[in-house]
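Pyridoxamine 5'-phosphate oxidase
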Amino acid sequence: MSKHYASIAFTDDVRAVQGEHGSEGFYGRKVATGTASPGVDSLTDDEKDYLSERDGFFLASVSETGWPYVQFRGGKPGFIHSLDEHTIGWADFRGNLQYISTGNVSGDDRVAIIALDYANQRRLKIFGHARIVTADDDPELVKSLTDDTYDAVIERAVLVTVEAYDWNCQQHITPRFTVAELESAIASLRDQLSALQAENARLREQLADGQR
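Tokens:
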């Protein structure tokens, strides 16, 4: 948990529930630490490397009505870029043209991100402030976030100034695997299957020769 995460996440209502369950004392000290030294938390190489390996994440924004909105953002591993120790960004691809997240951010720039590594049961949560950047605003930035090998229409870039983050426990994360993550195991099975098929063919041929 980064220094300022608790001071953002653990509101009075949250701390009241923590008090009911016996964890308020432990987390209360973290709230005090974050409140006493206001600022933003720096990303380390661990967070940067982790994000660079993800092929998707969940993005939450807040609407004018106060309702939260959660949307999945995906792409090839590496589509999330760490621009510096406080900023991450990605190319925003054309979707269903509802523009709910984009519209929400234009009115309230606060966002939350959850990036999951299902295979290794890891989860990174981020609080930050988002801003939209178009090709007209900064063509070089948008180009730097673009992967020409990925078949998608890029409408804008999104930059998030990271305020705080927390590595969540791995409990209850169901292991899931992408095709790429399974490929090494599948390749080994393919090799074993080919070897067995070749051996079976040789044995059939030997059996046939013996019966002639």
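The radius of gyration is 24 Å.
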